[in-house]
User: What shape does this take?
Amino acid sequence: MSTSRRGGSRRPDRPARRRPAPEPVEHRDVHVADGVRLQKVLAQAGLGSRRKCEELISGGHVEVDGVLVTELGVRIDPTTAVVDVDGMRVQLDPSKVTLALNKPHGVVSTMSDPDGRPTIADLVKDRTERLFHVGRLDADSEGLLLLTNDGELANRLSHPRYEIPKTYLVTVTGGEVYPRVRKQLLEGVELEDGPARLDKIRVVDAVEGQTMLEVVLHEGRNRIVRRMFDAVERPVTRLVRTRIGPVALGDLRAGRTRVLGRTELGSLMRAVDM
Assistant: This one.
């Protein structure tokens, strides 16, 4: 007797496919009795109206200290809690600000200069916060610097432990940058303060004895990019930093600043475990 029926039948010797077991749900209590309601904290952090923030919570978009929170009555301590919305870290302190600055050629990466040269302080003199600059660019170099009044963020971004990658557009002379030269820079060159190597390198353009390259490295030693290219006899004629971790220079004009967007800042904070 045939056992087939319309639409086909499952073979009797093939077991039914089981659905994978659901991921375990974290039930750790993050509620702080004398804290601030989570939706209020999110609204103050710029994520929208109180109603919008309530929808984010009830919709399962918000984690506090790694725990998914969907109840509207939860209170937290905004000075210690770590909050993520859709996987993005949120800066809870509205007094903290982080800026991207496009440093022009000839400006020194300090807030004051005894020789009277123009400094990055001249470019942010309209800001009332006490800002720290993250990393340095020598006076002859251009491009992205980060400025913040968040001391912890500045310290972590500067610490070699986190290995934040930095991207540069570098123009060099001295001949073609052959594959063997690029390989040497990737494998490492010896400098007076120890070996150094690039993480990535690619040729962008080559014309009239000059080569433009995009390079990525995570080290931050003084003038390291220039010294590395000097070591392979390809002196740098122009250097522009275009990216620090997730933050890109984009079309920001020389001498101008912009406040980092929430996504940029959240990604930057996550990169340094804040």
